[in-house]
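so ive been stuck on this for like two days lol. basically i have the seq below and the ligand is 2-acetamido-2-deoxy-beta-D-glucopyranose, smiles is in there too. i just want the complex predicted, nothing fancy, no docking runs or whatever. if the output looks off dont worry ill sanity check it later, just need somthing to start from for the group meeting slides
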Amino acid sequence: MLPAMFYQIAICMLFCGFNFIVSSCHQTDILNILPNQVSSSSNFLFGTSSSCYQYEGAILSDGKGLNNWDVFTHEAGHIKDGSNGDVAVDHYNRYLEDIKLMEDMGVNGYRFSISWARILPKGTFGGVNMAGIEHYSKLIDALLQKGIQPLITLTHYDIPQELEERYGGWLSSRIQDDFSYYADICFKYFGDRVKYWTTINEPNLMAVRGYREGTYPPARCSGVFGNCSAGDSEREPFIAAHNMILSHAAAAGIYRTRYQKRQGGMIGISLDTQWYEPFSNSSEDIAATERARSFYVNWFLDPIILGRYPKEMVQILGSNLPDFSKNDLSKLSYGLDFIGINYYTAKYIKDCLYSACEHGNTWSEGSYFVTTEKDGVYIGQPTEVEWLFLYPQGMKKIVMYMKDRFKNTPMVITENGIAENDNLKPSIADTLNDIHRVNYMHSYLNSLANAITDGADVRGYFVWSLLDNFEWLDGYKLRFGLHYVNYTNLQRTPKLSATMYKQLIYNFKIQLETNTAQN
Ligand SMILES: *[C@@H]1O[C@H](CO)[C@@H](O)[C@H](O)[C@H]1NC(C)=O
Ligand SMILES: *[C@@H]1O[C@H](CO)[C@@H](O)[C@H](O)[C@H]1NC(C)=O
Ligand SMILES: *[C@@H]1O[C@H](CO)[C@@H](O)[C@H](O)[C@H]1NC(C)=O
């Protein structure tokens, strides 16, 4: 059990504006008014997020084919601790136990991804694996039985290895047909019960890591960008991205024309976002900040929602940016129903186009310098995650930015979270007493509530992540879970944040009501 003191301090912090030292806080009263099922009282989705490669394990069970991450993690040198997702947290076999954990938290949503190679071991070059279909069907039913809405990601970085080998994966326009064939199968078998779909998780990160830096599969890059055996860092990211955009469009088209009317769900895409703050108020830095937004997030959302690439990209990249044909443009008209936002942290942006930067992003990256520090002060409090600085106000800012640019298209926060680092925090007691995560969620959720009060159409919030899991290049050393996983016996233990999630949801609703009353 967790020491009661931690629990009380955390509750106190939530309800006394963090002035728990000046203790006018009556914990017991607060515990008494805690409703049991706060989340069932509205349609707003509160949940946790996961992805197949980071969770499932069962690498070859029941006819699953190999995917790009299965192959990549088995090549030496890619993953810091030499680990892989062969077993991960064995969610494939333990999903019922994991749904029980969700039930205990009182949430009404669960975001997970389907393993493409589990459904289509060889993409369109082989048959449908019915055992894979059955697995996800059972998972969906078990969630719904507990009143938990599934939000399904069709691909969370993983593609069948066959497609990589046959035609170079995302670099080929053939992937559009493969992806839409796969999406169609998922809508057909699961869409009667699933009301929230996203096509691709973080295509912007995938394009950058896979084809510019070469740090994610297929590990392609060139020149100053990294040491890869092949690639073209200045062109390939845009080609891969173009195919991701059109794959989304093709899948959205299938959903909208063949399934949506009957099934009544929504389809979107999840982008990796960071809040970019100008380094100074110079017009150059302000323009560079807007350029950074265009070169990272608007790169995908502008074509999908507005039907064209952002003007900053067109100006700088010229013919390096692929064109949309007439046929592409008609596909793009299917757009999306909601924007999935993954938000964790913020960066400063400094111009490198009009003023020389000692080092900064190259022209093909938009010519700006990214930093987390100004005059020796960090943009937000550092955390145990190297790239994550606390910047809760950015939650409201990114949501309001999307609201203004995309005419208040509905939004879902598909990821937000923080980790403990085993290298810095080896004691399990410290990891379980994750007050830092409770505070993080509290402050980011308050910022989100303020955005909603100011008119943003946000439909849900999914914290990354339900369980500690395989954190890509960091292996198992970063623990993003609301539940601790012992990687020896795979036992799950709730952290303080898991037991507090109900309280955080309740607090979020109070914050919304208070805001409304004040307006
Ligand atoms: C590539 O490898 C060489 C030799 O190991 C090293 O000096 C260089 O810094 C590496 N370049 C990048 C971009 O990682
Ligand atoms: C830029 O100007 C705004 C509004 O005057 C101010 O709040 C902000 O602190 C300034 N930022 C910088 C980096 O000077
Ligand atoms: C994890 O499980 C193993 C095997 O049961 C056990 O020996 C170990 O103490 C556990 N570790 C923690 C941190 O609980």
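Residues 236-263 form the longest helix (28 residues). Residues 43-518 form a domain with the TIM Barrel fold (CATH 3.20.20.80).
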